[in-house]
TrEMBL record:
Enzyme class: isomerase
Task performed by this protein: Involved in the gluconeogenesis. Catalyzes stereospecifically the conversion of dihydroxyacetone phosphate (DHAP) to D-glyceraldehyde-3-phosphate (G3P).
Protein name: Triosephosphate isomerase
Subcellular location: Cytoplasm
Species name: Glaciecola petra
Length: 243
């Protein structure tokens, strides 16, 4: 058993329905050994509090309030009982042009509100192939460390999500994931000792059959689950694999 409490966080992305949420609310059971989180689309957050899981949002504004039509303030999320906010998901970086600096600003806003960011990092396929992926991931983390301050990463959950593995079925091998997780842990504990104790989740085509071997690795503290978090049976199996 690891010293860090495992976590399994589902990321529904722009999928699901209120009916599916109700079904999850009835099926997912509270656990004292695994932190279970469901990150549902904004309109479902208010209804998500009835389940035996913590609620997460998939993004938030870097601003606290004001003239930002269509954006969501972290204080509003807090009012609904949200505890976690995914920040810097690769789909936000790609679809909305979020930079490392934008993401650091969001991390800062989420921390200031007392919520926990699930900070996503991870490289595109070309950088994996050119063997420069560690430098890339390091830059992503460094931006948060430099802009948000030394202790910021110790207050985040970090999700390593290689982009080539997201939604592709091309899961990183447990060895590939462990290598990067260990690298991340070593680097961030260099900047701030406490950050070495942060949970580092793996994300990228985790499913009911491959979760156990991934989670068995010493620096993999659980997973961020996209597609498989929409199927109750699979999500439950993945949560149990993290025990
Ligand atoms: C994700 O979107 O964070 C993710 C890991 O997706 P998937 O599990 O579908 O690859």
């Amino acid at each position: 058993t690891k010293s860090r409490k495992p976590m399994v966080a589902g990321n529904w992305k722009m999928n699901g329905s209120l009916a599916l949420l109700t079904a999850f609310t009835q099926a997912v059971e509270l656990s004292t050994v695994v932190d279970k989180v469901l990150c549902v689309p904004f309109p479902y957050l208010a209804a998500a509090g009835k389940g035996d899981f913590a609620i997460g949002a998939q993004d938030c504004s870097q601003f606290e309030s004001g003239a930002h039509t269509g954006d969501i303030a972290v204080s509003m999320l807090k009012e609904l009982g949200v505890e976690y906010v995914i920040v810097g998901h690769s789909e936000r970086r790609q679809d909305h042009g979020e930079s490392n600096e934008d993401i650091a600003a969001k991390v800062s806003t989420v921390l200031k509100a007392g919520l926990t960011p699930i900070l996503c990092v991870g490289e595109p396929l070309e950088l994996r192939q050119s063997n420069t992926f560690k430098e890339y991931v390091l830059e992503q983390l460094k931006a948060v460390d430099e802009i948000c301050g030394r202790s910021a990463l110790s207050q985040c959950v970090i999700a390593y999500e290689p982009i080539w593995a997201i939604g592709t079925g091309m899961t990183a091998t447990p060895e590939q994931a462990q290598e990067v997780h260990e690298f991340i842990r070593t680097q961030i504990s260099d900047w701030c000792e406490a950050a070495g104790h942060s949970r580092i989740l793996y994300g990228g085509s985790v499913n009911a059959s491959n979760a156990e071997l991934l989670f068995a690795k010493p620096d993999i503290d659980g997973g961020l689950i996209g597609g498989a978090s929409l199927k109750i049976e699979d999500f439950v199996v993945i949560c149990n694999a993290a025990k």
